[in-house]
Sequence to fold (392 residues):
Amino acid sequence: MRDELRLNTRLIGFDGIIGRWDFCLNFIYLCIIGSLFSLPASSYLMTHISSFSDFFSMNTIFWEAPWLLKIWVFPGIAFILYIGISLIIRRLNDINGEVCRDTNAIVATLYALSTFGLLFPVGISFLLYLINIAILLYLIIAKGKITGKYPYDYRKEFNWGAFFGTWIWGLFNKSYKTLWMLLLWFTPWGFWYALICGFKGNEWAAKNRDWPSLEDFKKSQETQTIVFVILSVLIIPIIYFLIVTAIVSTIIFTAIDEAKTSPEHNSATIEKIENSLQKIIISYFESYEITPNENKFYISISEWKSYSFQDKKNLLDIAATASAKERERTSEDKKYYTKSDELKRTKIYSSETKELLGEYYIDDEILTSEKVDFKTIVKASFNAYRFYTPKK
Fold:
């Protein structure tokens, strides 16, 4: 029994116990590994969602994925499951103060099912997701009967200065591992590495610099925390806001000045806008045709398949905006057209097979009916963007 309850802080291992601190740190490592395996599947799902309703049938979309993707995902899930269960069992041993095999088996089974949640219908998947969150919160909050009696260790305190300052904090404390943040900041792993910096900050700082006393160490880290929190939460957002405001103000005042100039100058400006719009259309579509009743835009099937749901939505909005400008330019009565006017009759077709790939359709009766409720209108608006998978 003594061997079964020894401290074991490794990432993988079913024997022993693990405290809250090391459990959280190892779970962050597990999340990094999990995101590595799930990234291809997430990209595939986002590029194969054709409507808002598809968000509720992701399991069906996943089962239709290529076998190569499944071969990558399933071993990844199995590996993540193996690590996660080993952490959970050691944490439960610490919380219970003994090895309760029945409890360990039940909790591990629930965690395993939630890990495979993507493979189930959305209702079951959401329920398993909630169960998973409840399990993790319990394991993080519950105090261990064994590790709870361990003496205080200042190295196992979260360092907010390291979390907010990351690599800059690392330069001050000779912790050059934090420089990885320069490469990871704009990736899915940036946030997780910032958490690692927070968890390991005190340990790195204490090891890499000679401190006269523990009080000096704590005072220094508290000062750095205040500085980096102020920089991250107040100063940097304010600077960013001022820069954005300055750019927007410059654009607005430039537009006002141009509006006050001669009609010839205004015409030249409009022509520049139309030429820019024409370039945008050419960069996205192979060709287009504006008819009295329909705006037809053609794109290759290979490009269409590479776009996510949001990309396709943006593409349809661009086509509708371009159609509005084209109709306004060729209109004899100089009528003003908007994107909303043209969205309903703008459609995207395959340049190879001429089959319909994308459209915006919403039943006018839903919007004009007096009995319709707000929920129905919102749902109809979400489902109005309709994108289709090419048959060939």
